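Check these lines:
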Amino acid sequence: MNADIYKKLLEEHKELSSLPQTLAEVLRVTKDDVSSAKDLSSVISKDPALTAKLLRIVNSPYYGAGREITTLTQAVVTLGTRAVTALALSTSVYDITGKWVTTVDRVRFWRHSLEAAIACRTIAEAIRYPRIEEAFVAGLLHDLGVLVLENSFPEKYKSIWKHFEAGESLTELEENTWGTNHARVGQFLLEQWNIPLIICESVGQHHHHFPPDTFDADFRLPQIVALGNIISKFTIVKAKPILDTELSTKEMVRKNLKLPPERLSAIEENLFKQTVEEARFLEIDIGSIDEILLEANRMLYHHYLTVENLLRENSKMQREIARTKMEKAALETLRTITATFNHYINNAVATILGRAQLIEYGVDRGDIVDKRNKVVPAVKIIINGVDTIQLVLDELKNLHEFTTTVYHDDTYIIDIEKKIKERLEKLNKQNELQSVN
């Protein structure tokens, strides 16, 4: 990790070294175990804009308490200090970064971030994670390092972003350039703001490849954020391809979190609607309904093409499997036929050899008169022919198992032919010596 990059970030961007005073006090009060709802509301009330936004949020459909909440103290009592702090932090960071000049599509960025945050919160609820507001904040801020790096190195990041849009890995591009990536930069920034450590670490690890059976409690929130990021369909760049590593990580993390696959599917199914609804009362600009629908249609078409390609590949694979099965069946049949032929030819060879030997024996004893000396040479020719047949049969017996490799390997066939020829030459020499003797 290149420590110089962090030093440079703080030196050139003093505003990153600390949160606005009001939000810093909110975090301080929240960490104080003896602080009350009144203490927290008193701090928030110093910021009229933040006060108005929190009251709108607490009276929204998602947080609605069944009655109108008109004071911050009521809001804190109704939602709890953690939830109010999470909302204050989220909306404040959104406002802070909104002032930064950036070439990264800000609408797409926060659309993805909000969807990931909602996914993280819903996953946390599903697995009974005790602090779901931490999951929401970590999800919303998981890509904050992208804005920090882009704001700090605009020209360099513009070049990196083009490669990212072309399908290359953003973290690898960042690592090759600065020796770190946006996840760790985001973690560093949040640590400067004294955000709870578990949130900082979860942001820093949202691209981490978690091994199987990672059940440690310290890794539950990081894995929630990693999964929430992966299942977010609204990506920062258009037509971002789904990588094999993401699919394997998704399945691995789902199992580590002990989240049933059907529950995860239900979460993914409802993300679109929840993102649109909550963006409205959180006052996060994720684009107009028309823009969102166009984006949804684009994603749908992209997934349609992906499925079509998968079906085409599956069809091709099925044909390959069918052809392989046919070849295997043909080879199995060939092996059976060869074994059958061996059996019958062996019987015939044994019969011919036996008769030839009887003729030789009869000539030797004088039972068969060979006046012209033609019987014995003819018998030897028969025996040589039988030996040749036996030699070939022996080689066939050595082929214990036919495979497609053997079946199509000309070299293997040539080797067998060469071996047979060598054995025949040796056999002929032996017969010639016997004839001389």
User: Anything to note?
Assistant: Residues 327-436 form one domain.
